[in-house]
């Protein structure tokens, strides 16, 4: 499966279902260039996962919303809930391991923990 270009216009629809991996990158970033073929290969190997690429130069508002300060940064969603975020290029084996772990999450547990964290955030507002 090809990767999706992520923008503010398609972000919410893209991350709402299934497993979604987002690669935050920029054209001038050498580690991003090295990670790109690893990400593309994983997209081919996992047609059941959505692989999205976000150009931080073009989509600065979204990059700021995620608090991205270093690239590449990888973010994983499962069923609309962010479950992983890490800066730095991953080797292929680590990316495969991450995909397996995200697919294997107990989503009842994740939803419960996410709901609790959202309540805490609202109490501070």
From TrEMBL:
CDD domains named among the record's database cross-references: TRX_family
Family per record: Belongs to the thioredoxin family.
Domain Thioredoxin: 1-104
Pfam families linked to this entry: Thioredoxin
Entry protein name: Thioredoxin
TM spans (from-to): none
Source species: Brachybacterium equifaecis
UniProt keyword annotations, A-Z: Disulfide bond, Electron transport, Redox-active center, Transport
Domain of life: Bacteria
Matching InterPro entries: Thioredoxin, Thioredoxin-like_sf, Thioredoxin_CS, Thioredoxin_domain
């Amino acid at each position: 499966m090809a990767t999706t270009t992520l923008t503010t216009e398609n972000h919410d629809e893209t991350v709402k279902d299934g497993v979604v991996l987002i690669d935050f990158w920029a054209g001038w970033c050498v580690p991003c260039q090295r990670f790109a073929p690893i990400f593309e290969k994983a997209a081919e190997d996992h047609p059941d996962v959505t692989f999205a690429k976000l150009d931080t130069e073009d989509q600065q508002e979204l990059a700021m919303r995620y608090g991205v300060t270093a690239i590449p940064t990888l973010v994983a969603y499962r069923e609309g809930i962010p479950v992983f975020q890490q800066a730095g290029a991953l080797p292929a084996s680590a990316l495969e391991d991450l995909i397996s772990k995200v697919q294997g999450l107990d989503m009842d547990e994740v939803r419960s923990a996410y709901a609790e964290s959202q309540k805490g955030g609202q109490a501070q507002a």
